[in-house]
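Recall from the previous chapter that SMILES is a line notation for molecules. Here it describes zinc ion.
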Amino acid sequence: MSRKINETFVEVACAGCGRIQRVRASKVIPCDGYTCSWGRCKQNPDFKLPEVPDGWICVHEPYAAGGFSGWTIRPATQDEKRSLERAKAIRNAALIKRLRAN
Ligand SMILES: [Zn+2]
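With both inputs in hand, we obtain:
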């Protein structure tokens, strides 16, 4: 394995704690933001990802920038919208069943 000379590095910051990770630009997956752990910040437990508007989804990308995970909030595709509706229907049925059991 050879080392490339003049390789471009970029600095990616955790949105929760500001910790910076220096990684090769070619290894960074473009995302809306990055965190030092999977969808959260290890150092700042109060940090929350931005709210996802109705009809949109939050896509998590593990190791998007070195050890940092990334997230992107985008409009859901038609298939994803149908999947969300099915998931909501299953959740609501479970909640109704639980309420009736009590
Ligand atoms: Zn962090």
